[in-house]
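are you around this afternoon, could really use another pair of eyes. what follows is a protein written twice so to speak, once as letters and once as structure tokens for the fold. i want to understand how the tokens follow from the sequence so walk me through it. anything you notice is useful, everything is just below.
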Amino acid sequence: MLRKRLLRQMAIVSLLWLGLSNEIVAVANPASVFTRHLDRIRQNLPPKFVMRLPSRIVLNEPADDEFIQTLSVRIATFDSPQRVTVGLYSCEDDSQFCRIGTFSAANADTMQAQQEYQQHIAAASPIQLAKTIRGYVLMGTAKHPSSAYASIMWQQDGMVYTISFANSERQNMLYMAVYMANNTPIMANNAVSGTSQSRP
């Protein structure tokens, strides 16, 4: 029974990937909500770092394109281990109450990134994001401690990428992961020093 359910889930996601592939070819830039922040994102990437962002933001109703364009984009960088997170917030406060979701990149060689990635692999069946890229979803209810946010992780470009959104946005999170894995990567302009910083 469990095997059949897992195979059915993999088949559905494979069809999702095939269905989105033509659209992805035509749309290769990050979603418009990120456009005016791209230079700042590049400036915050450490040397040899790569970041990806989805070409579309997909959220449950009543959220629409007009609402998405009002979201605040915040960039956080960390040195130990090196990680860059681009977050979407419904207000200027970066608290959990305003957080819509985040997109992160961490060096795949770091122990912490690999530990988190292996946790996702152990908890989920693989989901095809691109021809050679598979992602792994971990619902917040399966995390220890339990969380209101689900996440999907995959390895690409020598990085471990993570998308984290509310548990109720699981399906939309998968859409965005497919867009992100097939989108044009963002390369670093220069190094950023400091332990951690967050800018609106």
User: Anything to note?
Assistant: The chain has five helices and ten strands.
